[in-house]
Amino acid sequence: MDSKNKDLDNKPGKDIGWELYRTFLGVLQEGSQSGAARALGLAQPTVGRHIEALEQALGLPLFTRSQQGLLPTEAALTLREGAEAMAHQAASLQRLAQERQLGAQGQLRGVVRVTASEVMGVEVLPPILARLAQEEPGLVVELVLSNRMQDLLQREADIAVRMTAPTQEQLIARRLGTLELGLFARSDYLDRAGRPATLEDLATHRLVGYDQETPFIRAARQGFPSWRREAFALRSDSDLAQLALLRAGAGIGVCQVGLARRSPGLERVLPEQLSLPLDTWLAMHEDLRQSLACKRVFEALAEGLSEMMAAPA
């Protein structure tokens, strides 16, 4: 190879392999070359060579050293979104390739990550997922329970069960119906403390509610302004903890009507005065529409949740 061709090879902007961007993203996420090496299963010197090669190919410095580790430059931060998009695309290709590998009996295969709130994941989804597991034994479902909204665009999850309408254009969303929320308490608590006749009477009761206010709670409080942190004798940001407290007879709190129906000891309080509708949505990134596994889980969740919400009270 002559010297002219060597110079062309070293010019910034030549074709750069995905492996270099993968390593770059690993260092960004882990904050060090050693952390990226562990996360990616590479030797640390290999990580260093990849970063060096990428900087040379781009003609840009990507990291500076500090006592806190490697700090990304402005150029690195600008490239991050594109590198993440490449990672998502690579993951999608890998998923599609895995799904095409059929088992000995032609079973659908794949791993699908589903996110939902704690109470939805524990109290509502298990029968739906159990039925799906019987019908599609080759599928693996990872259930992520969190009241924090997982970012589908960043692929923190593949499918989300949400109580607010998704707004991002890149998401496929389906409205499944409306869940009704109401006030409930165990009957023996109400026998002792009395049954409130008005919303104002709640001030004399032990109330179970949240600790930290969220955007969803702020929106719900527009229809129930007196439901505020200062009024609660028992506070928790865990929906499961609140439900357990209601079932234990600790006081009055908000619960899904359908869930309360499955707890014989719970009695509804002030049904004519307080009913909060809760829209339920299913969302998935549009890039996953070609994934047979994701489509199958999406449809199973949509069918199961719709059936549950259509059941008579």
Automatic annotation (TrEMBL):
Keyword list (alphabetical) reads: DNA-binding, Transcription, Transcription regulation
Query: InterPro entries given for it?
Result: LysR-type_TF_proteobact-type, LysR_HTH_N, LysR_subst-bd, WH-like_DNA-bd_sf, WH_DNA-bd_sf
Taxonomy, superkingdom? Bacteria
* Transmembrane stretches, start-end: none
Query: What GO molecular function terms would the record report?
Result: DNA-binding transcription factor activity; sequence-specific DNA binding
- Residues in HTH lysR-type domain copies: 22-73
Gene Ontology process terms (BP):
DNA-templated transcription
So what family is this one in?
Answer: Belongs to the LysR transcriptional regulatory family.
Q: Which protein is depicted?
A: LysR family transcriptional regulator
Q: Which organism is it from?
A: Kinneretia aquatilis
